[in-house]
Write a sequence for this structure.
């Protein structure tokens, strides 16, 4: 029971982190149909900016300034790069973000070096929030969860309850109509892209010190965020949220299961001790592959994802 | 750019930093990552080589005045690129190569060197391995042309377990590692050796996780915690190690971590105070040894390169090579290899011995703990973290020795 | 079909290709150059096989390395099993593996096109790459699988020991594969693939099942990728998990795109260029990854059709004898272009020397044969002014170029309609 509860807690925490990472991408992906490969790079930039800013003025200003800076960079990228690539179709757009991710990593190498930087959790958020049985739960993880849920609520509110949100939603399905009504659709797209990048940057500010801030951090989460968005369904914020939690919990529990086919057979009285590698592989070893398995399965059997409104 | 100029440029490729001059007669090709994600590790290694070679040259070089020179070749961490680099090395007539990052690269290079030497007996190449630790390289896959100056992973485990045997407070051990050859070897060796030496110690868990893909180690730590382990053994390196340590601290896991690479470049910075007093490493040297004959050298090194000195074995390798060249009175790799075999050498940490039967260096090793600098036993910190390593014990080279299955073919 | 293949012009092109392939190692006879040529040959096949998906069928794949890597592993296992198959034919084992993988994986991935296909290929690629370390029995774990291609005396004394013999093996296979892939574009399947790419609904109306067309194209592309993998295995005599990785998938996408996906030979240009750049520029400067990224972005933004499309554009002008219209404006643009290029390179090199200083040592940097001190403000200011000036002038010159282009274009269309 103890182990179950702790694993559940870990799963939810991890899931919320995934949501934090992918909410910006959902926004961009569903709005503009862009598979933004550089999304994780914005996450990385957020972490590095926060590291640099917090070295001068502390963590709290960095929490605001770093995501905004990333957002501005994102908007500039959209304005001077993506918009041009957009004329050549989706593949060019995607390749542009692909190249951008590559370039951002190299620039990070250049400015901050190739090793990890010493970006620490602020003193005020250090310590234990509560202790479940004998396992302590750090304050910082609680903070992370809070921000993640906050992101969901804010985005949801923004999209459904505000004027700009309604325009954004309208521009998604009927861009020409919205344009005809006098709204500047390219500017809306620029704002959306910048906003998505800022969300990734915020995730970086918070994730960077909880984990490790180093140049490989973008590549490490690069593909998992796509899994979340695709599994959740295009254009569905709620879907992304559910998918994040699902993946977080599945992965955490899979780690806990040391069972392999050989063990299962042994339990049934069949001896497979000399069996193949495949039979000896335990579920916990498979844990990190499971999200991809889930994604492929979803794409095959339910291409619009868990809660998506449409196919890509 | 025409193809022809491109090829000509490619010829110049690799010659990144030419420290020496026309006087240099014995060149050593350094084949390791100099670009891409592991470039910092590769560059750090290259500086270690340059530094000791400068020292050897300043004191007269080899063979009465010939200079040594190290030439960097970028292998981009890939076995395939390493073979391309090796091709460039042999094209330039360089007869010595050295490499350390990644056993996969080491395997590829051993194969390539063996084939090259068999196909070109008058242009043999000698391979000095300073950090690839797969035991196979000095067992089933041993080669006359390969010398290893780092203890292999089984020897390291032998040393760690010989130390653990004496610690009666250890009751339950958990083994966790990256799911690839190195992680598997560590787990296998740890289980076998603990069972033989301390049958009363219980191995309460044995986990493998995919290399470099785990973001959140909390579930693994929850498992370790649930198992009640008081000691964790891991062969993890880089982020997989730092993240594990951070997750352990977050969950309040009170266990000692025996690691291979706790002091590896970048790891102390990444784990920070989360590693304090719980992370132990096994190395051939660290900055707070006492006595520490390398202290001044290491301080000069740090001042010059803004980088912590780490690989004493690089010094050993180059000093032993210089002596072997002098003993053989020739820089011919075959003669040098015969001189290097069975060499006993007085290193800064005591006598080391290049075992003839498998070309594996036997050397004293140290277990040390990541501890806050106190100015007395822990004088120097690492990577400016305020934490340094503190010696727990010295493991004599006898206590890390293992038999070898090598059947050496000598030319 | 044979008529198309045997057309006189085409025959000349193929004959020329064959002659160039045969003569290249005579011109570049150094050992290192031959290794480079081998690599180029393999990558050309791989990139062409990729373009069967992206260029011809409109399928963007992020997991093409799966077929290449599996082909390589299987080839080495077959080699090591000593079945007595001549080494010359071994790449076929890789091809078979690629084909088989295509049959299985293609079935699940080609049900849909577009983004869905891209994401499935990404997922499958990640899964196969991850499993490569889980099954050390087949993939050899971290160290990979190695073998020895010299299996015996060989036919006519060809043992494939010396690299030059390996080169001719690769060149031979590359030639055969190129012809086969080109022939495929002329078959009804190849044509239907184009139709499915451009408009799947219409293709369906004509009576073809787009899903089936995509599937067949993927399977065949797996075959050729597998052959390329088999050749890599023989060339390096080692295969590691890296050949299955996302990195390899990305590299082939890059080659195909930079070369030009709209033309059959585009990926070949890309393969040659990227392979040479990777080795040549990497040897010249530490900043090569940076230049690489910038080059790629510039290509995407300003020449999305790849180098091949630029070539074709100019070929048309050449034939219409209109190059003369453009050349002056090109020269006009080249001067500021070079100024901008030079200034930027000096700045990038100085930045690398300065910021990477801790790792590289020293702030002095050698650019174009001059030693510049990156820590001096003067050097920075000078470089910035030069680059800025170049940019300004280039903008003006480009206006002239585009003006001339419009003239030429107008003249051409007038010519066509007239």
């Amino acid at each position: 029971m103890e182990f179950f509860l702790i694993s559940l807690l870990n799963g939810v925490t991890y899931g919320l982190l995934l949501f934090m990472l992918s909410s910006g991408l959902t926004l961009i992906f569903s709005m503009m149909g862009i598979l933004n490969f550089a999304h994780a790079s914005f996450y990385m930039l957020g972490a590095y900016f926060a590291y640099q800013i917090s070295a001068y003025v502390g963590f709290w200003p960095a929490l605001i300034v770093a995501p905004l800076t990333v957002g501005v960079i994102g908007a500039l990228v959209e304005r001077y790069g993506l918009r041009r690539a957009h004329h050549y179709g989706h593949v060019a757009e995607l390749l542009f973000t692909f190249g951008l991710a590559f370039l951002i990593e190299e620039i990070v190498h250049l400015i901050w070096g190739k090793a990890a930087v010493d970006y620490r959790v602020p003193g005020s958020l250090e310590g234990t929030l509560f202790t479940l049985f004998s396992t302590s739960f750090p304050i910082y993880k609680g903070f992370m969860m809070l921000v993640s849920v906050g992101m969901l609520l804010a985005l949801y509110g923004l999209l459904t309850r505000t004027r700009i949100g309604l325009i954004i939603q309208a521009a998604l399905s009927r861009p020409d109509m919205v344009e005809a009504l006098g709204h500047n659709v390219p500017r809306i797209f620029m704002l959306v892209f910048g906003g998505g990048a800022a969300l990734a940057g915020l995730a970086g500010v918070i994730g960077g010190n909880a984990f490790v801030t180093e140049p490989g951090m973008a590549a490490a989460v690069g593909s998992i965020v796509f899994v979340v968005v695709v599994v959740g369904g295009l254009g569905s914020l709620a879907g992304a949220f559910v998918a994040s939690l699902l993946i977080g919990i599945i992965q955490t529990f899979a780690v806990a299961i040391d069972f392999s086919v050989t063990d299962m057979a042994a339990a049934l009285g069949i001896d497979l001790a000399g069996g193949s590698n495949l039979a000896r592989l335990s579920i916990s070893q498979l844990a990190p592959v499971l999200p991809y398995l889930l994604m492929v399965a979803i794409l095959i059997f339910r291409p619009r994802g868990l809660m998506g409104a449409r196919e890509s | 750019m025409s193809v022809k100029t491109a090829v000509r440029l490619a010829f110049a490729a690799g010659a990144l930093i030419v420290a020496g001059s026309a006087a240099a007669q014995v060149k050593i090709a350094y084949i390791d990552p100099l670009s891409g994600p592991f470039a910092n590790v590769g560059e750090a290694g290259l500086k270690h080589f340059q530094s000791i070679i400068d020292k050897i040259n300043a004191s007269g070089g080899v063979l009465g005045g010939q200079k040594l020179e190290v030439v960097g070749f970028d292998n981009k961490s890939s076995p395939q690129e390493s073979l391309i680099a090796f091709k460039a090395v042999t094209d330039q007539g360089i007869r010595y190569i050295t490499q350390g990052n990644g056993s996969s690269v080491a395997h590829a290079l051993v194969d390539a060197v063996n084939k090259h030497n068999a196909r070109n007996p008058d242009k043999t190449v000698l391979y000095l391995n300073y950090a690839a630790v797969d035991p196979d390289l000095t067992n089933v896959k041993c080669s006359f042309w390969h010398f290893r100056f780092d203890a292999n992973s089984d020897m390291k485990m032998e040393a760690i377990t010989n130390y653990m045997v004496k610690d009666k407070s250890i009751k339950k051990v958990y083994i966790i590692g990256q799911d690839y050859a190195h992680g598997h070897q560590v787990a296998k060796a740890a289980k076998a050796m603990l069972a033989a030496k301390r049958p009363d110690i219980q191995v309460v868990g044995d986990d493998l996780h995919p290399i470099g893909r785990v973001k959140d180690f909390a579930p693994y730590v929850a498992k370790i915690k649930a198992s009640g382990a008081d000691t964790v053994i891991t062969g993890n390196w880089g982020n997989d190690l730092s993240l594990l340590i951070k997750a352990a601290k977050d969950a309040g896991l009170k266990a000692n971590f025996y690691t291979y690479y706790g002091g590896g470049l970048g790891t102390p910075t990444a784990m920070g105070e989360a590693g304090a007093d719980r992370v132990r490493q096994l190395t051939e040297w660290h900055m707070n040894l006492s006595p520490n004959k390398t202290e001044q050298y290491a301080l000069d090194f740090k001042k010059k390169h803004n980088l912590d000195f780490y690989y004493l074995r690089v010094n050993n390798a180059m000093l032993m090579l210089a002596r072997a060249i002098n003993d053989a009175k020739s820089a011919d790799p075959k003669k040098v290899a015969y001189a290097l075999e069975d060499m006993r050498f007085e290193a800064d940490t005591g006598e080391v011995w290049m075992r003839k039967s498998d070309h594996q260096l036997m050397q004293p090793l140290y277990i040390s703990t990541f501890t806050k600098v106190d100015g007395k036993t822990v004088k120097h910190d690492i990577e400016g973290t305020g934490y340094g390593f503190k010696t727990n014990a010295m493991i004599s080279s006898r206590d890390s020795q293992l038999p070898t299955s090598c059947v050496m073919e000598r030319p | 079909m044979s008529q198309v293949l045997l057309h006189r012009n085409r025959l000349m092109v193929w004959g020329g290709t064959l002659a160039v392939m045969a003569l290249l190692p005579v011109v570049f006879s150094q050992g290192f150059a031959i290794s480079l040529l081998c690599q180029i040959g393999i990558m050309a096949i791989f990139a062409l096989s990729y373009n069967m998906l992206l260029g011809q069928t409109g399928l963007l794949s992020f997991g093409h390395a799966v077929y290449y890597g599996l082909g390589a592993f299987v080839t080495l296992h077959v080699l090591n099993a000593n079945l007595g198959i001549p080494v010359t034919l071994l790449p076929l084992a890789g091809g078979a593996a690629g084909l088989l993988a295509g049959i299985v994986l293609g079935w699940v991935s080609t049900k849909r096109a577009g983004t869905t296909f891209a994401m499935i290929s990404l997922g499958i690629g990640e899964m196969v790459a991850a499993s490569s370390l889980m099954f050390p029995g087949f993939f050899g774990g971290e160290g990979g699988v190695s073998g020895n291609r010299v299996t015996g005396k060989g036919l006519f004394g060809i043992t494939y020991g010396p690299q030059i013999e390996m080169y001719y093996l690769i060149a031979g296979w590359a030639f055969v594969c190129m012809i086969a892939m080109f022939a495929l574009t002329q078959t009804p399947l190849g044509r239907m693939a184009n139709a499915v790419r451009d408009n799947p609904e219409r293709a369906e109306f004509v009576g073809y099942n787009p899903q089936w067309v995509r599937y067949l194209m993927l399977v065949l592309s797996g075959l050729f990728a597998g052959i390329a993998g088999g050749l890599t295995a023989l060339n390096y005599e080692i295969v590691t998990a890296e050949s299955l990785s996302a990195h390899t998938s990305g590299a082939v996408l890059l080659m195909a795109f930079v070369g030009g996906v709209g033309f059959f030979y585009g990926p070949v240009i890309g393969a040659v260029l990227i392979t040479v750049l990777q080795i040549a520029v990497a040897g010249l400067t530490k900043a090569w990854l940076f230049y690489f990224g910038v080059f790629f972005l510039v290509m995407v933004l300003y020449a999305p059709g790849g180098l091949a499309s630029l070539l074709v554009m100019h070929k048309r002008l050449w034939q219409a004898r209109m190059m003369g219209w453009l050349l002056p404006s090109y020269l006009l643009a080249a001067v500021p272009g070079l100024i901008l290029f030079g200034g930027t390179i000096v700045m990038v090199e100085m930045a690398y020397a300065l910021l990477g200083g801790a790792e590289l040592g020293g702030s002095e940097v050698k650019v174009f044969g001059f030693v510049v001190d990156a820590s001096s403000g003067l050097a920075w200011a000078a470089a910035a002014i030069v680059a800025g000036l170049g940019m300004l002038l280039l903008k003006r010159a480009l206006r002239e170029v585009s003006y001339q282009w419009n003239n030429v274009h107008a003249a051409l269309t007038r010519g066509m309609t007239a």
